[in-house]
């Protein structure tokens, strides 16, 4: 029976054949222990000299790291391992012998590992991070599909920016100026006026020359937009969505979280509702914590977000930022127009902002005023203005950065390990 490591629990006591790579090995006298992987999981194969014969046993002992092979053996339960099963190998066939595999079972520098990212993905921890990422994506589709959202794909090449042109990649679109998308939000607002509740999931690009552990040049965002929803409605959706994703990872990525050494008890506390504090209260909290250099009207940096998060064991919403430091499309608070109806969701444990969202301006006259203030009077933005002209409604939306969310849930320090092939300020290879 040909199967995979992920499916061996179905075949306890039976003989199976699995296509694998040799991750590592060790031998003890007349027994060889093979650490095997097949892409679906990791499993130990036991080769006993008395069962397999002298020649085959010596061949097993000589296998090199990352050699590919077919192994055949009987599946048995193994209560000593977290996986719960091992393979009593009675035969194997070498497919391709790997020679001098670069990433050996020793410490390697980060730059070396990043230069060999195409191979580093094979390691157990990197594999676990990607499986967590995949589960977050799966749970994302599950959440929005279950709750009546329509997926809309926004363009990657755009003729305008969502939040300003200083961090955009410019390119030529035949005879026109174009940009790589920094957000699909504006297009999602148009889609929300057609479908009610929509979401997109795709790559975004920021030409921000930052080297922090929270920043990538190319990253993926989940961006819902919702017609007939105000700011408070949107906050409820956000906390329900994040709770759903965390619960899905806890349920379906037990082995991966264990491989990463992630404390599941920390994640088990992540339940809606999440605490909410105003920007004003956040400023006061930072002052109490000794940040005398932050004044009202300034945006928060990574140290500020980390200090705020330290007071909570759940993600925390910071709401109602000053209008001057937020995007042109955010709706002012009717009772206090110097702040806008927005929120950043800050992850615990120092992982920073994972969601930014707001209620959008739905008044045509106010949006026209914003256009003038931000010099958006060109043709590129006229279609967006028309959304307020023809059947405007209250609407809200948000964007979740996938890689920061993966880093937080998986407990990974740097976002470069949360995307298969990271694009950083100094890296476009491999």
TrEMBL record:
It catalyses: tRNA(Asn) + L-asparagine + ATP = L-asparaginyl-tRNA(Asn) + AMP + diphosphate + H(+). Keywords: Aminoacyl-tRNA synthetase, ATP-binding, Cytoplasm, Ligase, Nucleotide-binding, Protein biosynthesis. PROSITE patterns: AA_TRNA_LIGASE_II (PS50862). Its main location: cytoplasm. Gene3D superfamilies: Bira Bifunctional Protein, Domain 2, Nucleic acid-binding proteins. Its EC number is 6.1.1.22. It is found in: Cytoplasm. It comes from the Bacteria. The keyword Endoplasmic reticulum does not apply. GO terms for molecular function: asparagine-tRNA ligase activity. Residues 130-430 form the Aminoacyl-transfer RNA synthetases class-II family profile domain. Belongs to the class-II aminoacyl-tRNA synthetase family. Homodimer. This is Asparagine--tRNA ligase. It comes from Halobacillus amylolyticus.
């Amino acid at each position: 029976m040909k199967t995979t490591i992920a499916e061996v629990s179905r075949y306890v006591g039976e003989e199976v054949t699995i296509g694998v790579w040799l991750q590592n090995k060790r031998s003890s006298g007349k027994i060889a222990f093979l650490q095997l992987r097949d892409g679906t999981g990791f499993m130990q194969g036991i080769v006993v000299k008395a069962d397999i014969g002298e020649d085959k046993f010596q061949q097993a002992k000589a296998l090199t790291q990352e050699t590919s092979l077919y192994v055949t053996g009987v599946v048995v339960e193994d209560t000593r391992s977290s996986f719960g099963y091992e393979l009593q190998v009675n035969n194997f066939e070498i497919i391709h012998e790997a020679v001098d595999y670069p990433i050996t079972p020793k410490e390697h520098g980060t730059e070396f590992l990043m230069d060999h990212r195409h191979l580093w993905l094979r390691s157990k921890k990197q594999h676990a991070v990607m499986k967590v990422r995949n589960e977050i994506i799966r749970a994302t589709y599950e959440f929005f599909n279950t709750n009546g959202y329509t997926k809309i794909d926004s363009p990657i090449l755009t003729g305008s920016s969502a939040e300003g042109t200083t961090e955009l990649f410019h390119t030529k679109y035949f005879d026109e100026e174009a940009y790589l998308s920094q957000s699909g939000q504006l297009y999602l607002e148009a889609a929300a006026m057609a479908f009610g509740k929509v979401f997109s999931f795709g790559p975004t690009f920021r030409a921000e020359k930052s080297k922090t552990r929270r920043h990538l040049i190319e990253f993926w965002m989940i961006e819902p937009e919702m017609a007939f929803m105000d700011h408070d409605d949107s906050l409820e959706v956000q906390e329900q969505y994040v709770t759903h994703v965390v619960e899905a990872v806890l349920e379906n990525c037990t082995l991966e979280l264990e491989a990463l050494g992630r404390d599941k008890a920390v994640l088990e506390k992540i339940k809606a509702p999440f605490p909410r504090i105003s920007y004003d209260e956040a400023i006061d909290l930072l002052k109490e914590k000794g940040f005398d250099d932050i004044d009202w009207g300034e945006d928060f940096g990574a140290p500020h977000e980390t200090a705020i998060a330290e007071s909570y064991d759940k993600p925390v919403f910071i709401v109602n930022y000053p209008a001057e430091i937020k995007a042109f499309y955010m709706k002012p608070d009717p009772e206090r127009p110097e702040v806008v109806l927005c929120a950043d969701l800050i992850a615990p444990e120092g992982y920073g902002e994972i969601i930014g969202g707001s209620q959008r301006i739905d008044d045509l006259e106010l949006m026209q005023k914003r256009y003038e203030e931000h010099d958006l009077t060109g043709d590129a933005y006229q279609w967006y203005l028309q959304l307020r002209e023809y059947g405007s409604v209250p609407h809200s939306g948000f964007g979740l950065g996938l890689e920061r969310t993966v880093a937080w849930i998986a407990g990974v320090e740097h976002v470069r390990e949360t995307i298969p092939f990271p694009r950083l300020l100094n890296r476009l290879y491999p």
